Amino acid sequence: MNIVLFDTPQARRLLKPFSYTRALAKVRVGIRTIEEKWKHYLQGDYSFLTAPYLSSKFPCVDAQESLCINSTVCPDQVLVEAIRNLKGNQKLVKDDTLIATLCDRTALQGFQNDDFGTPHLQSILFEGPLTQIKNNWDIFLINEQEIIKDFQCICKRRTTQRIQDQHTITYNETDVFLEKGVSTKAVILNAESGPIYIGSNAIIQEGAIIRGPVAICEEAQIHAGARISNATTIGPYAKVGGEVSNSVILGYSNKAHDGFMGHSVIGEWCNLGSGTNTSNLRSDYGNVKTWDEHRKEFYTTDKQFCGLFMGDYSKCAINTMFNAGTMVGVSANLFGVGYFDKVIPSFTWGMLDKRIQTYRLDQALEAAERMTVRRSVQLTEQDKKILAHVFLTTALYRS
Prior knowledge:
Layout: E1 2-6, H1 9-14, H2 34-41, E2 45-49, E3 65-70, E4 73-74, H3 77-84, E5 90-94, E6 97-104, H4 105-112, E7 122-125, E8 131-132, H5 138-141, H6 143-155, E9 169-171, E10 176-178, E11 183-184, E12 188-190, E13 196-198, E14 203-204, E15 209-211, E16 214-216, E17 221-222, E18 227-229, E19 232-234, E20 239-240, E21 243-245, E22 248-251, E23 254-255, E24 260-262, E25 265-268, E26 271-272, E27 277-278, E28 289-292, E29 297-300, E30 308-310, E31 315-316, E32 321-322, E33 326-328, E34 333-334, E35 343-344, E36 348-350, E37 356-358, H7 361-374, H8 381-393
Parallel strand pairs: 1-2, 1-3, 5-7, 9-12, 10-13, 11-14, 12-15, 13-16, 14-17, 15-18, 16-19, 17-20, 18-21, 19-22, 20-23, 21-24, 22-25, 25-30, 26-31, 27-32, 30-33, 31-34, 33-35, 34-36
Antiparallel strand pairs: 3-6, 4-8, 5-6, 28-29, 36-37
């Protein structure tokens, strides 16, 4: 079966800055990425339908018949059964959301041209609950249920690695699962409020406190004295210290030092300097305002808790302070005194005294290469072209 995970134009607008550099199925929520979740349920050859400038890295494979699935939808058994029951030229819908369609080559080509109008396809209404990422904050809002679902899928009929360290304490150890190679030293693992999953070769240093539900993915490092809690995901190869609550770090990023981060989503290859703090609650307890990329204006959400959204390759200096609901684009390099603006364009340099300067593309690429090499990952020509495209298309926001 040819399976295509498709991004709609609206989803790509609403999920910036994370959609700038990836197909949306590559977003991690819970333990796995959305792509990995679908692969667990449905066997097939997977590809992506996303923005044209991303297609060299995330190509779309054509076929006579394809199962096209909305890349912002997370699967469960009920939804998967409904999709399996689709026949040719039928589509599964709920309200105004196209969930999936079993379509021919002509319909897929229409999707490739951003034509998601499908009046010729027969509608099948899905009446079950639908878990979908419509806005950036949905990533941390649904993270608890997705950690629990992924934990059940991954750990079913498997045995956890035994904890070797006699000074590591577990509470409700039946909901603690360690993959091979995990190292813990004098750690508290409290799974009374939700499961704790620790991926292969992850290192949890002395004095760290982990309160589930929490997912710590492969090769991640949790530094001494860290406090990780309340539906948090630490993606692969990330390094984390300080306090992190109800947040998702997609992977390969550093928040290695003290400082608080809550109700936030951090992309890949980011670095938060020592003492960086993110506000996630207004002092008047009102709903948080954030930036609407589609309407190009601030608006008040219905969320009381909302922290920082930081795109890939962005970095901030020591003691940086972010207001609740701050949006940082791709490859920004931030330093200065006081709170930063709540919307920071991609490739911003400094913003000291609120003056926007441009982070030169050649300098940004050099810094990105230095960082990826430290994780034994190559910054490919595809990656460089993607970053160059983002640099050009976001220039007007820096003017």
